[in-house]
Amino acid sequence: MLISATEFFDFLAEHPAYSVERHEISEPHFDSLRRNLRGIVERLSDCDEEEANDLSNRIRILLSEWLTVPVPFNRSILDAVQSLGSPTKVRRKWGDDVAVLYATAINSAQMLPPDNPVRTKLRSIFGFIGSDQTFRIYCHRSARAHFESLLVNGDVLLSNASFLHSLREYREARTFDVLIKVGPLRSRGWGSVPDALISAPRFGTLVQVVWRGCHDEAGFGYDPVAPTSMTPSDSAATERGDVLANMISWKTIPFSDRRTNDPLPEDEFQLFSALNQARSGRAAILVGVDYGQGVLFAPRSEILSFDPAPSAAEPIQFRRPDETLMEGMFVIVPLGTDADLGGPETRKGIYSRTWKASLAQVYGGNPDALVSSLRSGGIDLLNLHASIQRWSSSLDDILPAPGKPKHFEILIQVLGVNWDGTPAAQEESTAGWKLAWKEIRHARGEAIQIGRDEHELINEELVAILGTHLPDIRTESEKSDTYVLSIPSGRGVRGNLRFYKVRSVEEGFLAPETELGFVQELSLIEQWRV
Questions:
Q1: Fewer CB within 10 Å: N-end or C-end of the chain?
Q2: pTM for this structure?
Q3: Which residues share a beta bridge with 255?
Q4: What region does 95 belong to: left with phi over 0, alpha with psi -120 to 50, or beta?
Q5: What are phi and psi of 495, to 5 degrees?
Q6: What is the Rg, in whole angstroms, of the alpha carbon atoms belonging to the chain?
Q7: pLDDT tens for residues 113-128?
């Protein structure tokens, strides 16, 4: 049940002051790991080669996750670092400076303590929270499992109500006592949280666990509309004076777990922000549609969608990801859908059936051997097993597929795909993998959101068609988070419509126009996070 405005303002009146318990964590070997990986990113930042950008992006993803999620210090950290490439390859490709940094990073990962001190601190915080206190954890959905793993044998039980993942969930939450957050307060990027945590608190105490050197975003939580109760020059102002300079009074209580006398580590998030400012691209919003997959949309895109809520006045309509498209709804992606029935071969997926069947057969015979061969060939995705399983999930579905032509070419070469029975067998001038890749790109092009003026007729027809199939759509949506609906014959539009349940909606991306509008791996999308 939603909290009423009266209840919320009564809560504010009862809490004239709020507190931030900021626990600063350090660990010498992890500090060294951060420092050396950051050094590699800085040295590769001026290189225009695609491979350099890929390596830099992968390091940024790793660091951003480790600094905002209570990951265990186990073999996975070392494996992630070593997956960046062999020391010999790194030295040959990027030179001695980068090779030294990389070797030191590997050594630091090997020297990490058995337990992440952030996890140790969180366990003590959970133990300190009294049974009469209510608490919530604000984190990304993918981070939830790491919090739950802290309390396998603990007395504190975590349920769905224990977690907040979005501004909408925060707004709908009842008031509580303690909010727990790992990482700095930032409005975008990894570990981002809404400004409303500070400008409109629904809790009395924020317990923040941060790695040493990570700073809150400048201006986070500042409400330009609220009347000020202090100014940055006011002697009573806190260390966050300009940020919290409104009628809500905050007090920061610092705690330090310093284990080293080394200089303060530099803030990776400031570095990443500075590098992102040099990027060209378009602001984008990520709509997470499946585990490991998502779609980037322009902020004011009109996206065909379905709202399964019984109270929805118009279940089928075009919605905007920054306004009306919410978690729990379904994005509807047209596949091969147009008024002229163009591209029949693409819709049949004549190439996808061939290479996906080969992939399923080879992977089923020896999964580890295939993964090893693909990695040796140059496919360096972090979770290659999961990617392969998605790529080969359906022989009749062109998507999902590798996100980069280079990766797709390597995949086809390793599989040794036999194109007999396809047009590629008769095409002497064009390699089979290129025709298959053209099929994938065409399918992704058709999947681009169709809320544009030139498709107005198609849009109206699709909404009308879907309206006549609402009972079937509701039934399928209750059974599955992803399914395909075929448009019946005899209508002005033909093709298939894929429904994806929206799992998350995140702002904070800057991507090229060509990266917008089609389903792809989150591991590829992460490179555009700002």
A1: N
A2: 0.69
A3: 23
A4: left
A5: 135, -160
A6: 25
A7: 999 999 999 999 988 7
